[in-house]
Design goal:
globular, 218 residues, alpha+beta, 4 strands, 4-stranded antiparallel beta sheet
């Protein structure tokens, strides 16, 4: 099945307009059929040995969100102490989550034992199942953007907090906690670029031919 030029352009537009959303969520419910499409797209991510190690936990409860938010606040305070001077103050002033503002939270997990201890494609690189679950995150993120739904990945929270709040067994790995919902707008640039935390790196400097030693710094 070939992809038409119009379809191709839509894929690139979705990729380039994807944002990590924190501040722009609005309280508009996501219809069940839309959520199902997004989750189905995530479920169609590539996975090592076709083990499909992910699960998706949907969070709507204000009480549960409050527990996750407190975990974020604790981890955020700890993280702030790792920065120095102006960088520390800048970090404290950044909006880095939308846990309670987003209509939905979605936690994506990885069951590393799902298809047994020996998995095709994981025999040499055992972390491939974790990478596969991250692919599910990206699929979900792009599908949500195609539905004009924002997603924000909250990484500043300890896994133990999420596991306790969501009753996740010790044997299951937490991959991502996502804030998901419609937004009043999508920013034209990522927040950390807009607020001067870091610029976008020139893509040409990330491309090497034949060898890492193909120096891109000159």
């Amino acid at each position: 099945m070939k992809i038409s030029q119009e379809e191709r352009n839509a894929v690139y537009k979705t990729i380039f307009s994807r944002r990590d959303v924190r501040s722009e969520f609005i309280n508009t419910p996501i219809p069940d059929d839309v959520l199902e499409r997004i989750l189905l797209a995530a479920h169609h991510a590539p996975s090592v040995g076709f083990m499909q190690p992910w699960d998706f936990i949907i969070i709507k409860s204000s009480e549960t969100k409050s527990k996750i938010k407190q975990g974020f606040l604790d981890a955020h305070a700890q993280s702030a102490e790792m920065f120095q001077g102006n960088r520390k103050e800048q970090y404290k002033n950044l909006k880095l989550e939308g846990i309670e503002e987003a209509p939905l939270g979605i936690c994506i997990t990885c069951d590393r034992s799902r298809t047994g201890s020996v998995v095709l494609g994981r025999t040499v690189k055992p972390e491939m199942d974790l990478f596969s679950s991250v692919c599910a995150v990206q699929n979900l993120w792009l599908a949500a953007r195609a539905e004009n739904i924002g997603v924000g990945w909250v990484s500043i929270v300890h896994d133990e907090v999420i596991k306790k709040a969501l009753n996740i067994p010790d044997s299951i790995d937490v991959i991502a906690y996502l804030c998901v919902g419609y937004v009043d707008k999508f920013q034209t640039k990522p927040d950390l670029e807009r607020f001067g935390w870091l610029p976008r790196r020139d893509a040409k400097k990330a491309i090497h031919f034949e060898s890492w030693a193909d120096d891109k710094s000159t």
